[in-house]
Amino acid sequence: MKDSLYLAWRYLVYHRIKTAILITSITLIVFLPVGLRVLVSQSADQLTTRAQATPLIVGAKGSPLELVLNSLYFESDVPALMKYSEVARIDMTRLAQAIPLYVRFRARGHPIVGTTIDYFEFRGLEVVQGTNLTMLGDCVLGARVAEALGVEPGGAVISSPESVFDIAGVYPLKMRVAGILGFSDSPDDHAVFVDIKTAWIIEGAGHGHQDLSRSEAVGSVLSRDSATIVANAAVVQYNEITPDNIDSFHFHGDLGDNNLTAIIAVPSDQRSEALLRGRYESADDMSQVVPPVTVMDELLDTILTVQSYVIVAVVVVGLSTLATATLVFILSLKLRQREIQTMIRIGGSRASIGWIVVSEIVVVLSTSVVLALGLTFITSRFGSAAIRALIL
Amino acid sequence: MGVELIRISNLEFRYSEGEFCLEIPSLTIERGTTAAVIGPSGCGKTTLLNLMAGVTKPMAGQVLTNAVEVTALSDAERRNFRIRNIGLVFQEFELLEYLTVLDNILLPYRINASMELDKAVRDRAVELANQVDIGDKLNRHATKLSQGEKQRVAVCRALLPDPVLLLADEPTGNLDPNNKGRVLDILLDYAARTGATLVTVTHDYDLIGRFGRVIDFRDFHSVPSGSGERATSRIAGNPGRRDNGETGQR
């Protein structure tokens, strides 16, 4: 038995290219359906868990899927925008707590989430280094962001312009890192959190500039009367909020007119949830309220349907690959007739020679299965993050 | 008269296809004999070796090798008998390309559970390889060797179990003159040292003078196939030693 295994091993090592092709083929046909199932089931769990932890999302009318994906995973395209005044509308109903979200801008590839302190409490996020948001212009980093950027509290992160070709558009804002969140194994790990007002400043809805009433700003003044001062393009705008210039930051117009991408509504009970949903049923309403679980279930149904088609295809391909592999073994045995005859003529027992062939098959199959299990393990560790990045 | 190692009586063999038939009423080969089997192609020389080795079974008759009636053994018993008592050397060497020189020599100990591969066997394999000057190539694959070296590996493989009978089927057929002499030296030397019997099929008439006995199929009744008559190689009685002076003693 040991000797048969040894001879089989020598044969497989000598014909290493043929062996590698066989092992690769069998590994893939074992791994693909299993790996796909693991991947989809894990991704489904992750997507569903976060959706289940988020009772209702309120947003402008448009694609519910885009709204949910943007609000829960911060990854999809920016949904239709809504006004901040919607927060006050929900507050006034006293049916739910309203947590605003403005997920539109990015900092070095990571989504900037404009929100309030309530969000951290709602998601159970804790600052493990530094402090929470204390001042306009502060940001708190998700654990993975801090790791990827190598930034610590006291450091800075700069927002990215939406478009490099839009010279009149959003200017980068240098944000002070106030703190870093602990790992939560969720999309929050990959986000940069700022106060909602900081997000509006990034958008350009609020800004800070030199005091035009002071004598050194005279070159930046276009016209001046007793009530208004009109600045020209030379006025110095601040791209960083510091204790020295924070007082100069201001918003023009009503804060309620500023933009949001969504509001997380947390009803106090089922009755409140039903009532709140009823308030948004009107066809004239510019906003919609969606339960994320329903939207994600629909998405998962689609994914599972696709998955079952893919598995059927993989099984068919797998069977034909197995048939080919069997053919390769049979042809290889035919080619090895002379070698087998030599062993029999020398005095080799049929059992020993049979064991050599069986050992070759067992080594190839077991190596393939071990590799497939290894790939499945890797998929279970890292696959769901990869697939989430792909899907979203 | 020495002790017989092989006794064949009333043997008849034919292949399932074709008209070839080999009949041997009686043939004995004594222990320690070195015999060359010669004759035209297709007359049954290799078949005779296969019958002596128990690789093939006759339709009728008996083959006694080393006092064992080989023809009465089952397939498995014949293989076990062969691997312990008979060393086979082939014209085409029949080495396994995926094994090293050492593994090829050790092959008989890896393909039959009745053979135990221990340190003593390994040491003996190395010793044999050193004796035939391939000791420095033990870890090389057989494909990397010259023809002469390959046949020396095949001879080591045949000698490793210390066989009482060496059957060589044209062992020098694919070798240059230097290697022919070298390989034959090794086989004859082994037979002389151990008292083993050597039966060699050969077409090389220059070498037969080195054997103690010649079994010449041309002395027997033989009809070429296609003549309409049954093609038969018939060894009548015991041809014994040739007295025509062609046969020389070592």
Can you put this structure into words, describing what you see?
The complex is a heterodimer of chains A (392) and B (250). Chain A is 50% helix and 19% strand. With 392 residues, chain A is α+β, with helices and mostly antiparallel strands. The longest helix of chain A has 44 residues, at 292-335. Chain B has 250 residues and is α/β, with parallel strands linked by helices. Chain B has helices spanning 45-53, 75-85, 101-105, 119-131, 147-159, 177-194, and strands spanning 4-14, 21-30, 34-38, 60-65, 68-69, 86-89, 165-169, 197-201, 213-216, 221-222, 232-234. In chain B, the strands form two sheets. A six-stranded mixed beta sheet of chain B has the order 5-4-1-2-11-10, covered by helices on one side. In chain B, strands 6-7-8-3-9 form a five-stranded parallel beta sheet, with helices on both faces. Mean pLDDT of chain B is 83; it is low at 221-231 and 236-250. Classes of the chains: A alpha+beta (392), B alpha/beta (250). The A-B interface holds A 3-4, 6-7, 10-11, 13-15, 338-339, 342-353, 356 and B 50, 53, 55, 75-76, 79-84, 86, 88, 90, 94, 96-99, 103, 107-114, 117, 141, 157.
